[in-house]
């Protein structure tokens, strides 16, 4: 780490409560694994969110899961192991391809707002229809003595809008993400492709079949932002052509009209190859769900 412009590291609470004014160059700090890995010429003050003491993972009485933005990947996977969460959690966590030291520091919220196409927490939480709770500075609940925070809610699949871009307004932060109980209980199918065995995800497709019969296919890594297609029931999916119809629907949806409808292009995979892999994976996950 060598952030020449940073002059202060402070707890985030006072700014959240409006007791201290936000300033140009403020940056929210959680794990910092990305923040400290690249030059940040605009950063002047780091506001430490870990000082707020948010509980990493909480399960509501209705079964919904609340994951704090400051929850580390290690904390999430340990909770998954001890509470019987879907194996999908571990499979997406392993897509980090990071050592245990990084997984012990990197956070769920940080991975979301970094908004890489291959961000594994974006893949996981978009596929499970998680909803992010967003806080606006000055709204409260930083030190616990302020008023109710100003907040809004946005599905993770809509929060990430492109490669390194999100729907956050300046200064806004992710407080937590909520995963519905129905998504946690759903059947899932997972496929992932990389150029090399230890490479960054070039295509990651998750299929989900809810108890209600809704079928959801979520494509990430291959596209610049999460792409989701839904069918209300297995019969409607079968009537739409089953696996072949799902492949055609995904291919037609990626029409270049916006980032989530654009095949990604970087050193980890050519767009044509990503398209081929993603469509093959869509076919496989739909076949698995319908079986």
Automatic annotation (TrEMBL):
**Database matches in SUPFAM superfamilies:** FAD-binding/transporter-associated domain-like
Domain of life assignment: Bacteria
Q: Which InterPro entries match?
A: Diverse_Substr_Oxidored (IPR051312), FAD-bd_PCMH (IPR016166), FAD-bd_PCMH-like_sf (IPR036318), FAD-bd_PCMH_sub2 (IPR016169), Mopterin_DH_FAD-bd (IPR002346)
GO-annotated molecular function? FAD binding; oxidoreductase activity
- Boundaries of each FAD-binding PCMH-type domain copy? 1-184
Q: What is this protein called?
A: FAD-binding molybdopterin dehydrogenase
Q: Which organism is it from?
A: Quadrisphaera setariae
């Amino acid at each position: 780490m060598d952030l020449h412009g940073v002059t202060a590291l402070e707890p985030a609470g006072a700014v959240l409560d409006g007791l201290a004014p936000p300033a140009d160059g403020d940056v929210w700090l959680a794990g910092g694994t990305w923040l400290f890995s690249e030059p940040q010429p605009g950063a002047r003050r780091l506001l430490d969110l870990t000082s707020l003491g948010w509980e990493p993972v909480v399960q509501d009485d209705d079964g919904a899961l609340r994951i704090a933005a400051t929850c580390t990947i290690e904390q999430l996977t340990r909770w998954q192991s001890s509470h019987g969460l879907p194996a999908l959690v571990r499979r997406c966590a392993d897509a980090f391809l990071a050592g245990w030291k990084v997984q012990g520091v990197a956070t769920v919220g940080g991975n979301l707002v970094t908004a890489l196409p291959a961000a594994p927490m974006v893949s996981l939480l978009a596929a499970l229809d998680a909803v992010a709770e967003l806080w606006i500075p000055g709204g409260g609940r930083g030190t616990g003595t302020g008023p109710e925070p100003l907040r809004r809610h946005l599905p993770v699949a809509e929060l990430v809008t492109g490669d390194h871009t999100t729907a956050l307004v300046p200064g806004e932060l992710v407080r937590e993400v909520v995963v519905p109980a129905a998504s946690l209980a759903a059947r899932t199918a997972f496929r992932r492709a990389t150029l090399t065995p230890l490479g960054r995800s070039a295509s990651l497709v998750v299929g989900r079949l809810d108890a209600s019969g809704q079928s959801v296919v979520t494509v990430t890594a291959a596209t610049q932002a999460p792409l989701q297609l839904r069918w209300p029931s297995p019969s409607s999916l079968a009537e739409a052509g089953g696996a072949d119809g799902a492949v055609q629907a995904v291919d037609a949806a990626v029409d270049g009209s916006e980032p989530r409808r654009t095949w990604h292009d970087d050193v980890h995979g050519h767009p044509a190859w990503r398209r081929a892999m993603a469509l093959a994976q869509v076919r496989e996950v739909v076949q698995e769900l319908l079986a």
